[in-house]
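Lab notebook: predicted structure, single chain.

Context: the supervisor wants predicted structures on file for every construct in the current expression panel, including those that have not yet been purified. This is the next one on the list. No modifications to the sequence; it matches the entry in the shared construct table.
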Amino acid sequence: MARRRKRTDQSSLVDPKLSALDQRTVAVQLQVMGQKRVLLGRGAYERDPDQGAVLRIRFDTDPDSEILIQEAHWSGKILPGKDVGCDYLIELDAP
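Prediction complete. Output recorded below exactly as produced.
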């Protein structure tokens, strides 16, 4: 009898890498004029020839807008996104 391997819920990992957000729903939290805003989108982890490894986040509400995070310069927080209705929450305003 073959056993099925249980898929690990990546959103529960502590301090996941940007690559874990590939093809996952992502919320981006940032400060706008002193107020916290949350944008919902989907992550795509890619290798750019000029910028190296990047996470490209495209937003459902505006498909022409995106945020690009370079892995080499990334220092923010990645948290589980369950409270905001997605797989992950990225805090761009984290100290």
